[in-house]
Amino acid sequence: MPDPKYVKSMKATRITIKGSSGYCPVDVAFHDRISLTPNSIEYTYKPYYESEINRPQRWFYKTDSPMFSVLYHQVEVLLPRYLDSDEKLMCTDLGITEIIVTYEDKSRRSESWCCPSKWFSELFAVIKKMIPACEDVPEVLTANGDKKE
After folding, report:
1. What's the rounded Cα separation, in Å, for the pair 5 and 9?
2. Residues with Cβ < 8 Å from 109, sequence gap 6 or more?
3. What's the pLDDT tens digit per position in 18-74?
4. At 77, is the secondary structure helix, strand, or coil?
5. Which residue of 21, 45, 60, 91 has the fewest C-beta atoms within 10 A of its own C-beta?
6. Minimal CA–CA distance to 102: which of 23, 22, 38?
7. Is the Cβ–Cβ distance between 145 and 23 less than 8 Å?
8. CA distances for 59 relative to 21, 69, 136, angstroms
9. How many H-runs (helices) and E-runs (strands) does the chain carry?
10. 67-74, long-range: CB within 8 Å, 24+ apart, which pairs?
């Protein structure tokens, strides 16, 4: 793993957040991920068991919006709060939230948590602003008991 001081000085080229439903009935269980780059956002939702109410989803948007770039930078600034935290929260019945960051030199850093998404509320609030208005808020940003906005 790269030296954290070195990593903090590099720009992130991709930020991926993966989630899963955790302990629940299989007909509503899922895993999903949202990926951000400085000029794009992508979401993939895969149910463990596809049904009429639990269907796969995927969307991708590319933009040159200055506001999107500002929000991406805000996400980058917030990342060390989670990646460098000594606090390791753990609940056994919740899905795992994993943050994976790819840096300019192609190095990667990832951390996983099994805790309520409320712990990520500040980070997720910024990412929610990046989602196009025509799309629902991704499950990974609302899972673990949070209400959809």
Report:
1. 7
2. 1, 2, 7, 83, 100, 101, 103
3. 988 877 777 778 899 999 999 999 999 999 888 888 899 999 999 999 999 999 999
4. helix
5. 60
6. 38
7. no
8. 20, 19, 11
9. 3, 6
10. 68/39, 68/41, 68/130, 69/38, 69/39, 71/126, 71/127, 71/129, 71/130, 72/15, 72/36, 72/37, 72/38, 72/130, 74/126
pTM: 0.83
Note the pLDDT tens digit of each residue in 108-139.
999 887 776 778 889 999 999 999 999 988 88
Closest C-alpha to 60, from 74, 42, 78 = 42
Domains, the chain, with CATH or none: 4-138 (3.30.1560.10)
What letter represents residue 92's amino acid?
T
- Closest among 25, 31, 59, 28 to 45, alpha carbons compared: 31
Contacts of 78 (CB under 8 A, 6+ apart): 122, 123, 126
